[in-house]
Structure formats: C-alpha cells, structure tokens
Amino acid sequence: MSEPLILVSNDDGIDSNGIYVLAKEMMKLGEVFVVAPDRQQSAVGHALTVSKPLRITKYQRNDINNEFAINGTPADCVKLAISRILPRKPDLVVSGINHGQNTSVNMLYSGTVSAATEGMLLGIPSMAISLSSYDINSDMSASGIYSYRIAKELLENNLPSGTFINVNIPNLEEQKIKGIKITKQSNSSWDDAYEKRVDPFGKEYFWFSGIYKTNDQNPESDDNAVSEGYVSITPVHYILTNFAAIQNLKHIFG
Question: Do residues 164 and 132 make contact, with C-beta atoms less than 8 angstroms apart?
Fold first, then answer.
C-alpha cells in the first residue's frame, strides 16, 4: 500500500515559516506536496481567481522537494493542486500553520481556513491550523508537534462527511499546553475601525485597525480554550441554511 499523499497549503504565502514547519511534520506521515500562494493572502476568505490567469512556479527549499507557488488565493491553490499538480487525489489537506488564531468569526475571513474548506468540499479529510500569535518569528515547535499528532489521527480515523476541523494552538511551549479540547465556535466579534492616513502625495488612505473582542464566556468555546492554554479543535461544516426560519419565511412570503 502506498504512503498517504498530503497536500499542504496556507494563506501566509509559500515562504512563511509556518508552512515550512508544517510540511516538515507532515513528511513524517507521508508524501507531501506544498502548494501555496506566492505572496501574503491573509483574510481573503474563500475567494477564487476568475479574471486573470493562474501561474504555477516551482519553489525549492533544500529539504522539501514538491513545492509550488501560485499567484492566487488559498482556495485557488487547493483546486489547482488537485486538478493539475498532484499525481492523485490527496488523502489529507492540511492548511497552516497560520500566524494568528482563527477562532470565532475569524473563520469566515481566513484564507487558511478556506483552504481546508475547499479540501472538505472536494471530499478530502481536511484541517486548518493556526497559532495564536501574529509575530512572524514565533516559535512554531509546539504547533508542529500538535499538527503531527492531529493529522496522524485524521489519517487513521474518519471525519463525518462534509466536515473539517479547525485547530487553534496557544502561543506556549509544548510542556505548558494543557492538552486538547473539542470546542464550538465562539460568539466573538471585531470592533471595526479604519485609521485615516495621508500618503506622500497628500491623498487620504485608510488602514484597518479593529479590536477583536471576546464576548463568549462559554468554557467550551474555541477562544476560551486557547486563552486557557488548550489546543482547540472545532468541527466545522458549511450548511448555512437557517432551518428554524424556513417556516416563518414561508408564512411571510408564501
């Protein structure tokens, strides 16, 4: 039996430290292909490129052979990898390791989460992994260890159909992490703000500077698990219909 084929992607770009650490850990489990954006693509959500051609560029780090950069989004990378780059359908899609946690509403905006979503939509066991630090120089060793452990379990155990897992890891040394919690998406939000600035030519521009507010005090939520020192695993699916509202709307519009 051939070894598992694992597709690794992200939204921080092909040259991020997070994707390098992740790829090295996944190489312990099977054959790895890294297919990621050629530049930073954070917060692009599930965008697809439809108005310009996509180009595949071979990327090479000394100890990772199958690396490819694409001038597109994380969802583009997963679709194009499976359609044109990989020798067969992968056994696992792993996206990350993202700089900054993707808990609560952040899942909606995250390109890292969207790469895992795309894997799930294509019928492949998938996971997104994020570290709760925006520092690009953060120590990724504990995140790599937990990524390996969780991916190994995914390869050995089936997820429910139409579901992927969203993993968030506290920015702690491995020995200080308390363990793993299975969590729900928390009810947190962004207090949006846009700082007005002026460029050297005297023209105004605006820079996002919102504050993330953790509103959900449920100990089983993803935000609270991470803040308490646990690795959070949230099962996610994308059935967006509000079934409870159907009958009411039928009454209004029927």
Answer: no
Q: Which helix (H) or strand (E) holds 19?
A: helix 17-26
Rounded Cα–Cα distance for residues 45 and 43 (Å): 5
Q: Are 138 and 131 in contact (CB under 8 A)?
A: yes
Residue 1: per-residue pLDDT: 63
Residue 80 phi, psi (nearest 5) = -70, -35
The values of phi and psi at residue 47, to 5°, are -60, 145
Q: How far is CA 12 from the centre of its chain?
A: 10
- Pick one of 3.40.50.20, 3.30.450.20, 3.60.15.10, 3.40.1210.10 as the CATH number of 5-186+217-253: 3.40.1210.10
Alpha helices in 157-240 (DSSP H): 222-227
**List of residues 6+ apart from 183 with CB closer than 8 A:** 220, 221, 222, 224, 225, 232, 233, 234
**Domain spans, the chain:** 5-186+217-253
Q: Using DSSP bridges, classify how beta strands 179-182 and 164-169 pair: parallel, antiparallel or unpaired.
A: unpaired
Distances (CA, A) of 122 to 43, 119, 249: 22, 5, 32
State residue 209's pLDDT score.
84
pLDDT along the chain (254 residues), means of 10: 92 94 97 96 90 94 91 97 97 96 93 96 97 90 96 95 96 95 92 92 92 85 95 94 94 90
Global pTM reads 0.93
